[in-house]
Design goal:
The chain is α/β, with parallel strands linked by helices. It folds into two domains: 144 residues, Chitobiase, domain 2 (2-Layer Sandwich), CATH 3.30.379; 316 residues, TIM Barrel (Alpha-Beta Barrel), CATH 3.20.20.80. The protein has 17 helices and 17 strands. An eight-stranded parallel barrel has the order 8-9-12-13-14-15-16-17, surrounded by seven helices. The longest helix has 21 residues. Ligand NGO binds next to loops.
């Protein structure tokens, strides 16, 4: 009895939702009325509707293992909520039937700008995602996902129909590095938490997850040649947090999960400061040869590896080697920030030597903007977070810059004075303030050609669980995704806030604990979505 009443109620709500929608776009016929984030380069509508039905097949162009895996990923997006049993098959040739096609081509319109360019065509009969590289197909799949009704995000069967407006999306990113950072050192987060975070990045076409793996409060990744790092150094956390670490197997699992979503993991080992956890694990890394005590506070700048000892460089070489072996991406982050207990005289040769170690293990160096004091080698990258002069010094040495200005892009800054989580040393970052700026006009002297992209770091001194990660990250992260992808001339807060508001249905179905800023016109349909998530939130 109760069940059928609930069913009827759901149906009524669904019909009501459709009724509300019919005023604007139901059934959907106008693809330009989409709410895609990041905003695509171009969207053209052809005025009709495609219905995804249970007899659809995902046809994957034959001969590409990567495409086959992407087909599998798309099946995983579609089947749970539709209740369909769609499968994938290899094919070559022109699209037909009511199917979805993933196709690699030599060129697309406007061109194969970068590896992530794609073209999505929704015909009345079929859907096709074409790209020059599998990474373009991966991004196109996320666009298709965003065009499907929000209830596609539900892990269990929902009522259809599954309708999409027809037309074409042509798209490619402005910057090649678009990411977020998760500090797993101050508070530790499980492999499942990291995977969920990766899922959120993927949905908005971010392609980098920087993991801040070590700090004063904890060492979070197993290094087999230096076992005490995790036997001792992983058991602490801020305010007596229980700590934890990733075994090498778990780290590889994270890397692979990210890779399947075309996201690169950037591991960071913060050096020579922010190293108390290492100094507590191995006395020989300290200048006085005595192990330091575990640290549970939140002060910065008090620790330093003994930069004059050879054993310190043996240690770094082992750590970089083991991590580099498990990291297929091109980057290795050496930290380098706030080394207030290391004199500049010691800091410069130290950073120079560490860069060589990283290069010898085949990786490209990234460091916080302070590393520009050293002689930057190879194609080092400077991550700008607070000091314009440092970033400019890096640029003067030919380095590329990742833009992570604390006052605009730190996910741990409070939204406003009533936000309970987070810090405010760099100011408050409301959703509009986090969105409304441009990478290439923030620091005079640093322009587009010198910028690799954008990264939004989430430091976790005050963030203790995944719900809190969500609250600080969503919705600001979507803004950084768009800043990195979409040309400034195509972006405006007034246009963005409407598209952002329409994401709330999706957030609700996904059970995301987001910050519902009063500046955003959140979607009126969200009540319906909440019902469908079974009150998951
Ligand atoms: C700084 C500091 C981190 C803090 C963070 C807090 C950098 C690069 N170093 O950013 O250790 O956790 O601020 O906002």
């Amino acid at each position: 009895m109760k069940r059928s009443f609930l069913k009827k109620k759901l149906l009524l709500i669904a019909l009501l939702g459709m009724g509300l929608n019919s005023c604007n776009n139901y059934p959907p016929t106008d693809l330009t009325q989409n709410s895609i984030i990041p905003k695509p380069v171009s969207v053209e509508a052809t005025g009709r509707t495609f219905e995804l039905s249970e007899d659809a097949i995902i046809f994957v162009q034959e001969g590409s293992e990567e495409l086959w895996q992407l087909g599998e990923y798309l099946v995983g997006i579609i089947n749970p909520a539709t209740g369909f049993n769609i499968s994938q098959k290899s094919f070559s040739g022109a699209p037909f039937g009511h199917n979805i096609f993933l196709t690699l081509v030599d060129t697309i319109s406007p061109n194969c700008a970068g590896d992530e360019a794609y073209e999505l065509t929704i015909d009345e009969k079929w859907i096709q995602i074409s790209a020059c590289h599998p990474s373009g197909i991966a991004r196109g799949i996320q666009t298709l996902r965003q065009l499907l009704p929000a209830r596609i995000e539900s892990g269990h069967k929902q009522e259809g129909p599954w309708l999409l407006a027809t037309g074409t999306v042509e798209d490619f990113p402005m910057y090649s590095y678009r990411g977020a950072m998760l500090d797993v050192a101050r508070h530790f987060f499980s492999v499942d938490d990291v995977k969920r975070f990766i899922d959120y990045l993927a949905l908005y076409k971010m392609n980098i997850l920087h993991l801040h793996l070590t700090d004063d409060q904890g060492w979070r990744v197993e290094i087999k040649s230096w076992p005490n790092l995790t036997l001792e150094g992983a058991s602490s956390g801020v305010n007596g947090g229980k700590g934890g670490f990733y075994t090498q197997e778990e780290y590889r699992e994270i890397v692979q999960y990210a890779q399947e979503r075309y996201i690169t993991i950037v591991p960071e080992i913060d050096l020579p400061g922010h190293t108390n956890a290492a100094l507590a694990s191995y006395p020989e890394l300290n200048c006085d040869g005595k192990a330091s005590a575990a640290y549970h506070g939140t002060k910065v700048g008090f620790s330093s590896l003994c930069t004059k000892k050879e054993v310190v460089f043996d240690f770094i070489d082992d750590v970089v080697r083991e991590l580099a072996e498990m990291t297929p991406g091109p980057y290795f982050h050496i930290g380098g920030d706030e080394s207030r207990s290391t004199s500049l005289e010691d800091y410069i040769p130290f950073v120079n030597r560490v860069q060589n170690i990283v290069l010898s293990h085949g990786k490209r160096v990234i460091g916080w903007d302070e590393i520009s004091d050293a002689h930057l080698l190879g194609n080092a990258v400077v991550q700008y977070w607070s000091n314009d002069k440092n970033a400019l010094k890096g640029v003067a040495q030919g380095a590329k810059v990742i833009m992570s200005p604390a006052s605009r892009a730190y996910l741990d800054m409070k939204y406003n004075s009533s936000t309970t989580l987070g810090l405010n040393w760099a100011g408050y970052i409301e959703v509009d303030y986090g969105y409304d700026w441009d990478l290439a006009s923030l620091v005079p002297g640093i322009n587009k050609a010198q910028i690799l992209g954008v990264e939004a770091p989430l430091w976790t001194e005050t963030v203790t669980n995944f719900k809190e990660i969500e609250y600080m990250t969503i919705p600001r992260m979507l803004g950084y995704a768009e800043i990195g992808w979409t040309k400034p001339s195509q972006r405006s807060w007034d246009d963005y806030k409407v598209r952002l508001g329409k994401q709330s249905d999706r957030f609700d179905v996904m059970g995301i604990n987001y910050y519902s800023s009063a500046l955003v016109p959140w979607n009126v349909g969200s009540e319906k979505a909440e019902e469908m998530s079974d009150g998951k939130k």
